[in-house]
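A reminder from the course coordinator: this example appears on the midterm review sheet, so study it carefully.

Given structure:
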């Protein structure tokens, strides 16, 4: 009755950590942690295991980077071996990265049921690799754990039987609540000479924003303007770093004194930065959720979001990538007219205990 938990890339680790902690209360769940190795740099992987107290993976597949087909195929090939060796009763996948899809597909082909945490989110934009990963994973999963009502509706519209869907809340927020106090002790603000409420944070890694010089340049132009009004801290994802090496950006960023580029930060330093930021600009999904719970205004530099609850309930505004609009919306926030919002239902820090209880009941039923 082993249950395999899959971790693969940075945004997975804060989702898997609280679930692994909560399943300890249920002896029927015998967890086996598998790291696919989709992310392998210390700053994108190891630091999260240390800071979130995730046990060392039982198995590390070391698949690394590659094109979508290559990466997905490698994960499937390696994960199939794990499944044949370990014969788990259930596989738990989180989020929407390539490994999420690959492990789900390898599992169901061997008749191993899959549970998907963070099911039902839809941007309705099939040019996003994550949208394909979400749709396929949901269609294959036996247990679907959702974070919000719109995810429940999306699944229902797609014909998913309601008894497969469990509305449990948001595990990212469990990790946030579990670590916020310790994160407050981080010295990241003094490291960058920042004062509370007197800086902005930028993150960018979506292929549609960073893989073409033209789109990256439009965003950098706009943020250079924002950086004239307050310092902007920019932890740079490896994908984005590749794009920024062009000579054009070196000159542009060199002239923007208060545009502070840094390596990707660990979980606690980044949380500390978010808590006291005046403004966050991002194309990340998870950061839209974290800023909503922290009450920090967030401008999402995309044309859509698969997390509309952060707009309807929270502090998020989807502003797209038009430089004039980004600058205008940022000035609104700096003038004190940023969005104020509330916390969506069940984002209460207890999602993983609800998930653990459902998993345990499911496994008990299967055993008997
Ligand atoms: C992946 C996920 C994305 C998630 C993001 C968070 C997919 C399709 N995308 O995107 O949903 O939001 O992670 O970071 O699964 N690289 C390194 N070191 C690493 C990992 C990657 O340098 O540890 C570089 C490689 O050159 C690689 C590039 O970053 O080619 C992109 O990595 P990849 O895992 O393909 O996608 P991400 O952009 O990180």
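Designed residues:
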């Amino acid at each position: 009755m082993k249950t395999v938990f899959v971790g693969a890339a940075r945004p997975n680790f804060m989702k898997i950590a609280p679930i692994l902690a909560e399943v300890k209360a249920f002896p029927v769940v015998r967890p086996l942690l598998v790291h696919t190795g989709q992310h392998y740099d210390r700053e994108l992987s190891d630091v999260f295991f240390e800071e979130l107290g995730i046990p060392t993976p039982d198995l590390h597949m070391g698949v690394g980077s590659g094109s979508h087909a290559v990466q997905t195929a490698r994960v499937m090939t390696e994960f199939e071996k794990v499944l044949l060796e370990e014969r788990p009763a259930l596989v738990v996948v989180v989020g929407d990265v390539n490994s999420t899809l690959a492990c789900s597909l390898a599992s169901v082909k061997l008749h191993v049921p899959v549970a998907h945490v963070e099911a039902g989110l839809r941007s309705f934009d099939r040019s996003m690799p994550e949208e394909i990963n979400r749709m396929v994973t949901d269609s294959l999963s036996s247990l679907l754990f959702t974070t919000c009502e719109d995810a429940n509706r999306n699944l229902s519209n797609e014909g998913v039987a309601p008894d497969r869907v469990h509305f449990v809340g948001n595990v990212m927020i469990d990790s946030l609540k579990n670590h916020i106090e310790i994160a407050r002790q981080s010295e990241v603000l003094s490291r960058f000479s920042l004062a509370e409420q007197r800086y902005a944070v930028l993150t960018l890694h979506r292929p549609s924003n960073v893989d073409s010089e033209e789109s990256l340049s439009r965003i950098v132009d706009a943020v250079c303007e924002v950086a004239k009004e307050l310092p902007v801290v920019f932890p740079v994802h490896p994908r984005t770093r590749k794009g920024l090496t062009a000579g054009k950006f070196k000159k542009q960023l060199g002239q923007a004194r208060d545009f502070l580029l840094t390596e990707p930060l660990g979980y606690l330093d980044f949380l500390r930065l978010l808590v006291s930021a005046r403004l966050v600009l991002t194309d990340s999904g998870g950061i839209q959720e974290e800023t909503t719970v922290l009450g920090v205004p967030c401008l999402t530099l995309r044309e859509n979001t698969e997390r509309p609850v952060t707009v309807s309930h929270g502090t998020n505004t989807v502003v797209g990538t038009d430089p004039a609009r980004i600058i205008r919306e940022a000035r609104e926030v700096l003038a004190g007219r940023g969005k104020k919002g509330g916390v969506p239902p069940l984002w209460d820090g207890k999602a993983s205990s609800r998930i653990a209880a459902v998993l345990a009941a499911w496994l008990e039923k299967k055993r008997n």
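The chain is about 50% helix and 15% strand. The domain at 180-337 is CATH 3.40.50.2000 (Rossmann fold).
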